Predict the 3D structure of the following.
Amino acid sequence: MLKNNIIRPKKTYITSVLKYSSFKNDNSIKTCGNKQSIQELGQPTYWTHPHLFYTPNPANFNKQVTPGISKQEFAQRRFNYVTNLTNYQMLYFSNKLSSSQKSAFGQMPLNQWVKNGFDLSTIDHNFIAVIPSSMTSFMAPDVPHIFKQNSDFMYMTGFNEPESVLVISRTGTDRTSFKTALFVKEKNPKKELWDGPCTGPENIEKLCGIEYAYPIQDFKQYIFSLVKESSINKKISLWRYPTEHVVKQESGPNVFNECVESALDCFVQECDSNRLIDMDAQESLDGSAAASYFNTSRYFVQLCRVNKSQNELELMKKACDISSEAFINSMKVSHPFINEHLIYSKFDFDCKIRGASYLGYIPVIAGGSRATTLHYIRNNQIIKNGELVLMDAGCQFNEYVSDITRTWPVNGKFTKEQKELYQACLNVQKHCIDNCAPGISIQKLYYMMMRKLGDELSQLGLIDRVEHESYVRPSEPETNPIAFNYLRKLTNFCAHDVGHYLGLDVHDCPEVSKHNDLEPNTVITIEPGIYIRPDDESVPLKYRGIGIRIEDDIVITDNGCEVLSNKCPKEVDELERILNSQ
């Protein structure tokens, strides 16, 4: 007879989790006879999921909106957002600056404007900024995809339900004051029977700390009311979200809410054009089409998002630690003739049992020559003996994403040619990481990467050394642009960038330029690669069909940087030791 092997949780563990909750004083706990009924909302809360909201400081437990992020931090984000928007708006509408001066100010960090002579007495309009949530998307009739919130909306609210809208406005004369309103679905018992509980407007203040919350159908009436209450002697700027661009051009989350967009169109048409300025219809600050995105509500969110708080960095470090452990375990199960999908499944499993919500993106598990396809995500082929496997993967932990890439031999031993290319790629990555510090930009790091890549490849004889030295001179700064003809040759070996911003999304903050100087608490990836197609006859046969990428997550510090993914091994001897320790 089989024993009952159900593991019963120890009382000490239950106590350690629940001691952080003030259930006795919490209005979410309703008495039903002799039992307590916990009010479920549309997302995890500290009173329904205390195991997700653990904090070393018990006093902070009941202050969190999402795990690790407090109501106070969300409020500070909204304050920072308004500061960015109003400063830019004052610059945009200033009638005391010439076009050249506007362009000059536009290239400066916002906190430098006043120091460089920007006049705070210039035109200062009131504003209405609209930021929508994601909509539910479906993979089949009545079968939804896992919901992924619009990261800009999540960053500003912490609210994780679809069909919602955030409106931030200023209608008075005090430039430091603003009003935040959230529009959400009403509670509906019939729908909740199928889809589970939703939060409803009545619970928003308790959950998110946002005072004004209304049913989504009141959105149109509300934005018209803002015009009526606005000071008559001030114009109002409307900052809309670039929904069409996000959905169609970026292939981003579905943020198009037909009712909201229709209400905004009606609002623009019916309001007095002498009072309301639709920023979507205005020219950009410098007249370029690319900069027109500055005139959306989204741009100012991403200016805030790019610099992380200490709480965000702790969540990202945890995401990297989880992914690093999962990488090591994925290496350990590797062997010749393994299916890529098994490695995928192992990584997914190991992330989730360590607390990850789900993977941050569809991983790349590319064996052999498939690693030369940059976004190979079929992950269903057999990896042969003697081949490398390139795995680009990361988890999402409490909304924040890690993004790591490692390459290793499935049989546990690099060949001479594999080791040469791998070490060359690792040398490039280490060089770039060593130069990550405040004041350098991702674009400058890209030039640095390509120069170092050319140096390494020329030492292996894959690029002519004399040609390399004619284009890349030691006397030049490493961050200088490279001659186009030589850069094009190098892109045959590495066609992608050196990295990208990282945070709530794997490709975070796309509206923040990679030409901007990096600041402390900005997180980026550093991911050089070497890819040699199987049919590339310009290189020796022994190197063909090899694809290598090494990627780490980096936070910029006051004096340099820190590697958040430092627990994931990448040295040749480390990898071979792990691979042969099974």
Notes: The CA atoms of residues 470 and 486 lie 10 Å apart.
